[in-house]
Amino acid sequence: MTTKQTLIDESKAVKVLVEKLKGEALTKDYGLRHPKERAEYRRNRYLNNREYYKKQTQHWRTVNRDRARKQFQEYARTHSEELRAYRQAHREQIYQSILKYQQRYPERFRQIHLTASRNHTARKNKAEGSFTEIEFQAKCKEYDNRCAYCGTLKPLEADHMVPLVRGGTNTIDNIIPACKSCNCAKGTLTYEEYITRLHKEANPNE
Prior knowledge:
Strand content: under 5%
Distance between the termini: 88 Å
Mean pLDDT: 82
Largest sheet: 2 strands, antiparallel
């Protein structure tokens, strides 16, 4: 390619860039001068392409789970009154959505419910910290999705190694997966105390 041709191509690229910047500047200026019309345009564009934007949002949340969770938590903290009013006004719709999710993903719903229940109990006991369903699922994978006590492949619950009533925290490092029977049998024992009891039951002659 000749130097002359290169200069021509570069000149065209600069012109394209300049036109693009002009267009962006005009769009921004229009939006500032006509905020209502701009908002209406965006709303109509969303309504006409609802499925596309829904898929884009779901993809972004999947790729950026932690960021999305933090953004929602911050929004919930700063818009608590608006969210409360929305839940009151759309109670039946929210209930039906939850019911539909429960029917479609029963095991996932059970785990989410248990995690929320544990966090609620921890807040009542003024325990330090909290953990998410994602963190608990990662913890389950560390144990090959087996109960940390009996090693069975049963549905798992979050168990506090040091119980909340004995000063344990509600952070993920104090959580291990346990089946319901082991979790109930453990009661207010610590992890070490329950393991010792299981060992004595399995070896009564020692």
